[in-house]
Amino acid sequence: MDRPYSRRWAALGVLCLSLLIVVMANTALIVAAPDMTRDLGLTSTQLQWVIDGYTVPYAALMLLFGVIGDKYSRRGALLGGLAVFAAGAVFGSLADTTNAVIAARMIMGVGAAIIMPATLSLLVATFPRAERTRAIAVWAATSGLAIALGPLLAGWLLESHSWNVTFLINVPIAAGAAIAATILVPPSKAENLDRIDWAGGVLSVITIGALVYSIINGFHFGWGAGPLGAAAVAAVGLATFVAWELRHPRPLLDVRKLGQRMIGGAALAVLLLFLAAFGAIYFISQQFQFILGYGALETGVRLLPLAIAVSVGAVAGGRITPIIGTRTCIAGGMLVAAAGILILTQVDDSTRYWLFAASLVLLGLGIGLSEPPATDAIMGNFSEDELGAAGGLNDTAIELGGSLGIAILGSILAASYKDSIAAFLTGMPLPQLTGELAQQAAYAIEVSGESVGGAALVAQEMAGNPISAAHAQPLLDAASSAYADAIAATSWAGGLTLLVGALVVAFVLPANTAAASGRS
């Protein structure tokens, strides 16, 4: 085009709507998981795969699908991804077994891996450089909105429907986005991409998939043969991928660019921000549901300060980045987000909602200030023919960061909780039981020691039994105290990681200038 596309802001709305359902599919499960667990009788391993059946293909395939969109059609990739995503959602709404739910989530993850990089590459291809920073700020604000909107919408639906409807709600949104994309989003593809590096694509899928699998299973279930084997595959795959890409004349991803300070620092910032964000939402949502007693809808409503703060931060960041520079805005936003996490080190068993609200606001502001300029820095340093690879790199950093956050911070949370409640459970006065009742009591103590959700369910059962009713409230009190200690310990880990990461990013990023552009 010889002039800016006249309907580019309407097209951005379509891209943001597509992004919305991709992120919501991850966060809606936060409030749907308890109902799903009760209905399907999920074990902790099965529940983990219901969650990660979406995450693994989503993270592993984004880079390859981004380049495929560059080669053939970015809008076509968006439409195809929406179709795959909707098909998985329909399948999930009809599922009545654990394996069927996991399969549906995997199909949706494949669709998400096609959609996500297409939204970002289409945005950059559609907007002129002068408007791109504002457009990316809107895109980033949408992802923040979706983090909170997923639990809110799922909670509202669960008030009067089963968990299946949390899958089905995606279908009309995907259909509407596809129709609108056909009308409003201009076709786009790379002009000079003559072939795809398929070998590099396969290596990237194996490497990222094995890495995410290893992280998730190793931190949640222990570093046995499976996670260690996957980690070894990821290490070998990464070395082979880098060696191959350095030699290939048209690589899937020009890995030399990762050595550029702007791209490397921005990608690290994105990864660390979403490590902190997903980890914090993971333990805050459990506090809301199991300790403060909020229902699914109430939990969604109380996560809204995060979404609002991300939007405010993105708008503010778009205005101040040209003034203070990319490095200051990214690193400063990370410091604000770190402060939001570190506030939670003061949590105890008497803490109410407002401390968590303050944490969510600071975390959201930090993400809103940092993510748009970081994404703009990544996208602005790739050529027009590499937009899919650039979008895939940015989005892989987001998803890998989220996986690390839930896995690493979640494992710290679980270990701290177990240590804190162990003494109470060991000394818990129970009547002398034999046979099946003794087995049930032992199982109840084991479940209570594994998670705060397990303790809440056990206390609920105990309250309805005359033999154990007197012990229900002390168990809840002990679980609340132990979980508060666990949140404090986990917040130290997450907050300090983000704090140190901000200093590293400030050192790596070049001097305070707007993100350099690889295009005119």
Which characteristics define this entry?
80% helix; mainly alpha; 0% strand; 19 helices; single chain; 520 residues
Provide a brief overview of the structure.
Helix content is 80%, strand content 0%. The chain has 520 residues and is mainly alpha-helical.
Largest sheet: none
Estimated share of beta-strand residues: under 5%
Helix content: over 70%
Uncertain ranges: 515-520
Given the helix and strand composition, which structural class is it?
A: mainly alpha
Return Rg in Å: 23 Å
Number of helices: 19
Name the helix and strand elements from N-terminus to C-terminus, one letter apiece. Answer: HHHHHHHHHHHHHHHHHHH
How many β-strands, per DSSP?
0
Query: What average pLDDT do the residues reach?
Result: 88
Terminal residue distance? 14 Å
Explain the layout of strands and helices:
Elements: H1 8-27, H2 29-40, H3 44-71, H4 74-94, H5 98-126, H6 129-158, H7 165-168, H8 170-184, H9 198-221, H10 225-247, H11 261-291, H12 296-302, H13 304-324, H14 326-342, H15 353-379, H16 387-426, H17 435-450, H18 452-463, H19 472-508
Helix pairs in contact: 1-5, 1-6, 1-8, 2-6, 3-4, 3-5, 3-9, 3-16, 4-5, 4-8, 5-16, 6-12, 6-13, 6-15, 9-10, 9-16, 11-14, 11-15, 11-16, 11-19, 13-14, 13-15, 14-15, 14-19, 16-17, 16-19, 17-18, 18-19
What does this entry look like structurally?
The protein has helices at 8-27, 29-40, 44-71, 74-94, 98-126, 129-158, 165-168, 170-184, 198-221, 225-247, 261-291, 296-302, 304-324, 326-342, 353-379, 387-426, 435-450, 452-463, 472-508. With 520 residues, the protein is mostly helical. Helix 1 packs parallel to helix 6 (129-158). The longest helix has 40 residues, at 387-426. The chain starts with 7 loop residues before the first helix and ends in a 12-residue tail after the last helix.
